[in-house]
Automatic annotation (TrEMBL):
The protein's name in its UniProt record: Oxidoreductase
PANTHER family on file: ACRYLYL-COA REDUCTASE ACUI-RELATED, SHORT-CHAIN DEHYDROGENASE/REDUCTASE
Taxonomic source organism: Bradyrhizobium quebecense
Domain Enoyl reductase (ER): 15-325
Pfam families: ADH_N, ADH_zinc_N
Gene3D superfamilies reported in the protein's UniProt record: Medium-chain alcohol dehydrogenases, catalytic domain, NAD(P)-binding Rossmann-like Domain
């Protein structure tokens, strides 16, 4: 039987276990494209799955990892042939479908996006689901009508993966970016990415007012809970906040006041089941609107056998920027 290296998650008497092991080809799930995985990355959701801190995994055994970049080995899908360079994000990988922390993946061809010109497989995972989600958030704000002339834009969880890419993209597009972080020691790092101002997340952690002083025209939030409620209360008339994460919780202790008195919009961002055309748009924009030098500066590379140790670190807020995982 052919086997390959993979990080396997199994159900245990108490919670789950994760281990780097050999996985049998015969256990791969249905799909019309088989990919040799070259690079993956570490996202917050990966940390939850690896540590068992939240019920992310809904099928056992599971191969962890929610995104990958690599080369097609076999395909019966009309859009793909052996040798094609592809990227895959979401679609339940690492949750309901065997994921990316493995030397091989079998998926539906409809899930794949062709690697854009100018982006290597490593770059694609330096961007990863975090950066792709940040770009979806930017696209949503633009669709709402936001431009650099609208006013400042706030980014929460600024030193994390979504936040770091969001700041780099927004600054290149000409926005005045306000970065919110719980790690003020990272102020120089955030300003290097393009943030004009850096604020302590404590400014957004108090009991939210129905309406507070207007501070920004829009924002990208990966934190949720009280932080998101405060963002909404401080958003200017007609502004919008793109919500794409829940690092602080799933609750939202807000009121209808920002929506009905200031016309503020809350834009929901889903990266997992996002339609393929919007995915292609996001990756095209990342190829043109993300400074590759900044991407390189915020990226740290680890090996597959180091992933489990980093799972707890990302949940503890100890990871800055992006981590790429070298698979082969």
């Amino acid at each position: 039987m052919a086997t390959f290296k993979a990080i396997r998650i199994d159900k245990a008497d108490k919670g789950t276990t994760a281990a780097l092991t050999q996985f049998d080809d015969a256990e791969l799930m249905d799909g019309d494209v088989t990919v040799r995985v070259e690079w993956s990355t570490l996202n917050y959701k990966d940390g939850l799955a690896l540590t068992g801190k939240a019920p992310v995994v809904r099928r056992f055994p599971m191969i962890a990892g929610i995104d990958f970049a690599g080369t097609v080995e076999q395909s019966s899908h009309p859009d793909w042939k052996a040798g094609d360079k592809v990227v895959c994000n979401g679609w339940g990988m690492g949750e309901t479908h065997l994921g990316a922390y493995a030397e091989k993946a079998r998926v539906k061809g409809d899930w794949l996006v062709r690697l854009p010109d100018g982006i290597s497989a490593r770059d694609a995972m330096a961007i990863g689901t975090a950066g792709y989600t940040a770009m979806l958030s930017v696209l949503a704000l633009e669709k709402h009508g936001l431009t650099p002339k609208s006013g400042p834009v706030v980014v929460t969880g600024a030193a994390g993966g979504v936040g770091s890419i969001a700041i780099a993209v927004l600054s290149k597009l000409g926005y005045h970016v306000i970065a919110s972080t719980g790690r003020m020691s990272e102020a120089d790092y955030l300003k290097g990415l393009g943030a004009t101002e850096v604020i302590d997340r404590a400014e957004l952690s108090g009991v939210p007012k129905a309406l507070a002083k207007e501070r920004w025209a829009g924002g990208i939030d990966s934190v949720g809970s009280t932080t998101l409620a405060n963002l909404l209360s401080m958003t200017r008339y007609g502004g919008a906040i793109a919500a794409c994460g829940l690092a602080a919780g799933m609750d939202l202790p807000s009121s209808v006041a920002p929506f009905i008195l200031r016309g503020v919009c809350l834009l929901g961002i889903d990266s997992v089941m996002c339609p393929i055309e919007l995915r292609r748009t996001a990756w095209r924009r990342l190829a043109s609107d993300l400074d590759k030098a900044k991407l390189a500066d915020i990226t740290h590379e680890i090996a597959l056998d180091e992933v489990m140790g980093y799972g707890a670190k990302i949940l503890g807020g100890q990871v800055r920027g992006r981590i790429v995982v070298k698979i082969v």
